[in-house]
Specification:
The structure is a homodimer.
Chain A lengths: L3 H13 L5 H8 L3 H14 L2 E7 L5 E7 L1 H39 L2
Antiparallel strand pairs in A: 1-2
The first copy, chain A, binds a DNA duplex (30 and 30 nucleotides) through helix 3 and strand 2.
Chain lengths: ~110, ~110
DNA sequence: AATCCCTGTTCAAACGCTGAACGCGCACCG
DNA sequence: CGGTGCGCGTTCAGCGTTTGAACAGGGATT
């Protein structure tokens, strides 16, 4: 698929480290290589990320995965949306914990 | 698979309603019929739940999915474990939210 | 030229999940 | 007594997602 979490995590990682390889990104985010390639391609299809060929000073060829202006805008939007979702999740877990605590308290009096 | 969440939810549901059909249980927990059947069978294989043939007063045949003594013990264990995991998750989300808030604050000054 | 290493890309296989379909047994009715 | 309907548990082909081994390409090193 391509969830908001994927979008957020990838855009954030690329914002800070546009010079990582797909393998490094995958490892950093805990994604498989295939999934990362899929997600990255999706971001590029949307025009949020642009791959630029570049070579390190004295090293191999590689790509630079840079956020486009549209990507920067989108990253801001996704971040706000993701935050809101996390806040809701947080509240829900709080209730769940309260219920679980009562349950544990009752089960061995 | 069969996560702690599955174990907890099913054991809890059965503790309160041993007389529900698999379809009713699935609907209540938001599981598909196939998944519920799989999970329930797993609990029975472990010896935590026992299916007893019974017939409602003036109705059809059905099963009673009752927790065994071992099942009651296990339910208590799983509940504690599940609570602990939720507390950790809660703390982690709290940190994540804090980071996201700072990120949002910085992105449109 | 040959070898090595690190790229990005691909895609068959594995996995988890779904829900339509099936067989069974009971209750009701003609 | 047969027929029909209903709800039950069970099954499994099909689906969408995910995995990671395998591949092709290009620069560096020998």
């Amino acid at each position: 698929m391509l969830t908001d979490s994927d979008r957020y995590q990838l855009l954030k990682a690329l914002e800070h480290n546009p010079n990582l390889s797909q393998r490094q990104l995958a490892s950093e985010l805990g994604y498989s290589l295939g999934k990362l390639n899929y997600c990255l391609k999706a971001l590029m299809d949307k025009g949020w990320v642009k791959a630029e060929n570049f070579r390190t000073n004295q090293n191999k060829t590689a790509y630079l995965y840079q956020l486009t202006p549209a990507g920067i805008t989108e990253k801001a939007r996704v971040t706000r949306r993701f935050l809101q979702r996390k806040v809701e999740e947080h509240q829900q877990i709080e209730q769940e914990i309260e219920a679980l605590k009562q349950e544990v308290a009752q089960q061995t009096p």
